[in-house]
Amino acid sequence: ETGVTQSPTHLIKTRGQQVTLRCSSQSGHNTVSWYQQALGQGPQFIFQYYREEENGRGNFPPRFSGLQFPNYSSELNVNALELDDSALYLCASSSGRAQPQHFGDGTRLSIL
Amino acid sequence: KQEVTQIPAALSVPEGENLVLNCSFTDSAIYNLQWFRQDPGKGLTSLLLIQSSQREQTSGRLNASLDKSSGRSTLYIAASQPGDSATYLCAVVDNNDMRFGAGTRLTVKP
Q1: How does pLDDT run across B5-47, given as a tens digit for each residue?
Q2: What whole-number distance in Å separates Cα of residue A84 and Cα of residue A112?
Q3: Contact B43 A45 (CB under 8 A)
Q4: Nearest residue to B40 (alpha-carbon basis) of A3, A4, A105
Q5: B31–A105 C-beta distance less than 8 A
C-alpha cells in the first residue's frame, strides 16, 4: 500500500507567478484535503475534494483552486502568488470526512 | 467558529518521564479528534483518532482521552524516549473542516 506522495518537495517562485502542486492519494482513498502550514503554526484548511467535487473550503481567496482526478489524485493551483503564500503545503487523503487523514510530506513553497 | 488551543507550546523533559499534552476546543459539535506527530520539515503522522462517541484510544505508550462536554483532550505519553522528540498537533473535525492547534514542541533529553 503506497502512502500519500506530493510533488515537488521544494519550489521557489516570485510574486505574481502561478504554481501547481500535486498529490497522489493513498490507495483506496476518495477524499483529499489541502492545508497551508506557515512556520511555527498548525496547518490551515484550504479545501477538500470528494469524488472530484469540492466538498468544503476554508478561509482562502479564490486564487487558491484545486482539482481532483478520476484516480483521486489532486492538484492545488495558486495564482498571483504573494509573499505570504510562502509555507509548507500539505495534502491528506482519507476514505471519508470522519476517517483518519493520512498526510504526505508536503511541498515547501518559497516566494521571493 | 471553532478554535483549537494547545498548552504548553513547548515542553522539555528527561528521558523516562511520563507526560501529558493538552488540547482544548471551543465547539463540542465535532465528528472526531485526531493527534498527530510532526518531525521538522516533514508531514504529519497520525497517532490516534478518537471518534466523538469514544472517550479514549490507546496505542503502545500513547493514550488519548476526549471529554467533548468540556472541550478537552489529553495525550499521555508513558516512559518518554528521545525519539519522541517532535511537535505534537491535535485537530478536530466538525461540520466545516479540520482545524488544528498550533502544536506542542516536545524535547526528550537523554
Answers
A1: 999 999 999 999 999 999 999 999 998 999 999 998 888 999 9
A2: 10
A3: no
A4: A105
A5: no
